[in-house]
Amino acid sequence: MASHMARGISRTLVTIAAVKTRRGTRFAGYLGATLCASGGVLLYAACSQNVSAAQKASSIDTSQFMAAPVTELSVLEENKEDTKAKMELLIMRIQSEFCRALEGEESSGTKFTVDRWRRHNPSEGGGITCVIQDGETFEKAGVNITVMSAPLSKQLQASMRARGKELPDDKQFTFFAAGISSVIHPRNPHVPTIHFNYRYFEMQDEDGNNKHWWFGGGTDLTPYFLEEEDVRHFHSVLKSSCDRHDPQYYPKYKKWCDDYFFIKYRGERRGVGGIFFDDLEAEKPENIFSFVQDCAESVVPSYLPLVKKHRQDPVSEAERRWQLLRRGRYVEFNLVYDRGTKFGFATPNARIESILMSLPLHARWEYMHSPEPDSREAKLTEVLKNPKDWV
Prior knowledge:
The chain is α+β, with helices and mostly antiparallel strands. The protein contains 13 helices and 13 strands.
């Protein structure tokens, strides 16, 4: 009955907003709020009921997802072999697996708040943002997916041309993007921060010509104190994922990561690196998709052992202060250099809350701060200034 009602009001739909609640079982904690033009009435429908009803007519198992996919299940079902559908289902799964793994490290039982949202124009898609704030283990943890189709602004067209894309000036372009982005800021400074992002992008002009597609992404680690064994473990997992596809991938994308996450005016990297790549394309998208899938699936085994190992380590006031100083550097990179942040700001009607999800709850800046010589802080700083090979 709910589906009939939804179809009946679709012609008068004005906007869709998400009601954020703590997730209980499956999707019962999420309620969709639809504001209708006819009298401004709010219609609430339990997301779990919608997902359950849709599943009956679909072979796609969404039962473990954090929320219903952004794209209608019927559309995903009809296009299961299309790269766009495959990427959306992949990032839905990776989001769920990573969130549940992190929740398992919250001894207080803290769960992610799940926010399923639509763009200002609902037909352009939306996303699912999962956030923990003030948890016992994670001070702030965000895992966001976005699936959207929209006109490509002139500013973004210029950016694409600068990266080598051939786009005629007299054409209007639309794009499709599907990606997952996550930044985890732990409470304990002995647990590193991790960031990962994997995305797929398609674009074409108004006539369906001048088509381009590519994948991008990476995973990188930002420790506050250098534990070389931990860094070697992290890089080893990423290298194994790369080696399954090409032995040249890891050294190439490791260097790309070191170069990309460089805060030029500080003369140092944001962290101890990982892998980073962009504009990956080939004759067959499925080959690169397989590589991206392996990389995304390596996040949990590369990071969770470090959380388990250090989340209960004792912490001094000086260690906490150093953690906040390093988080200040993290903020600087994200706001000054990060491509994803710039792309988000340049996209019309961008959702600022999701773009700035990566920022920590707390950070610190001190005038002319410099670590003591031969200290643990100085040891980390030296590696940030001069990256090394870990595996």
